[in-house]
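Minimal example, chain plus LFNQLBSZ.
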Amino acid sequence: MSFDVLRWSVSAALAERPDAPLAALFQGPAQTDPIQTTQTLSNGTEVAFWDYGVIAVTPPASVAATKDVVISCAVHGDETAPIEMVRDMLQDILAERLVPSQRVLFLIANPAAILNDSRFVDVNMNRLFSGAHNQGDTAEHQRASDIERYVSQFFKLQQRYHYDLHTAIRDSKHEQFAVYPFTHGEPYSKQQLTFLAECGVDTILLNRAPTTTFSYYSVQAHKAHAFTVELGKVRPFGQNDMSRFAQADSGLRKLISTEALELPEFSPSRHHVYDVCRTINRQAEQFALNFPDNVANFTEFAQGHLLATDGEIEYRVEQPGERIIFPNANVAIGQRALLTVVPIALEQLKLV
Ligand SMILES: O=C(O)CCC(=O)N[C@@H](CCC(=O)O)C(=O)O
Ligand SMILES: [Zn+2]
């Protein structure tokens, strides 16, 4: 199904809150074809609609922006709270209640999946970046390729940031956490750890290998500080308690509207850090998790405990302190069905 055909219905699907008409997110202010329109607000902010759900915001000419910030949501279409956050930020920008001081690219990544009330339509879009979109021809492959092009078109300044907002399928012992993608040996940023903690995200998962996720793409292709940010649990539109997202919302709004963001001193004791220990990809038709659906992310199991069976293979806990994260038995064969993580001391990491 083409994203063009979907645009009206996606807007309708999202416009559930009567106070929040969403047409602008997808059609641009003129709501006519072609989609590419640019509007200059009375405060001088330029809002450019590059494509459905792709909105570039440039601060007034009097402001010397120093940061490029990508804020993305709906890489998974059923993760609705981040979509509501992005929608509200955009509406506040259009209403001039939020005035950006930095360049911002808002991305509503997978409108077709939003409309479908599903994580994805054909393929998990968060496995299609860094060139993986060349290996298929679904609408999601095409959209991931388009998104890479838009991000490349956007990033210009030296300071580059990307927060890819998600919510998780399960409850979590740490309600909000971020995946810090592989940095190719670059030190981890104290400033970014502090910023995330200010957003309420005090738990970090280090993934120390290349992946095909959106956040890793921004690290690898654009040398951005980029993160997959998990802000809570997946719920349908209208069922999110937005007060639980207030800290992240306020942190992101401050980041984009402040010329020189002031952050507190880095304080190592503020952060819980985990290292990915094992990535378990499903290999067989007969794949099963050996714990119930209500077991939360970051739950620890005893050494030797059977976590999953994959055909004849048994996956057991190997290390003391090993915890499960992102378990999903319903992934396609070859895709990640489970990660295990172990706590790691910040002192062991190269920080800058
Ligand atoms: O709750 C789950 O099982 C999945 C939540 C989710 O979508 N997580 C991202 C993490 C991406 C990363 O590792 O950076 C994903 O699986 O795509
Ligand atoms: Zn997600």
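Residues 1-34 have pLDDT under 50 and may be disordered. Residues 277-348 form a domain with the OB fold (Dihydrolipoamide Acetyltransferase, E2P) fold (CATH 2.40.50.630).
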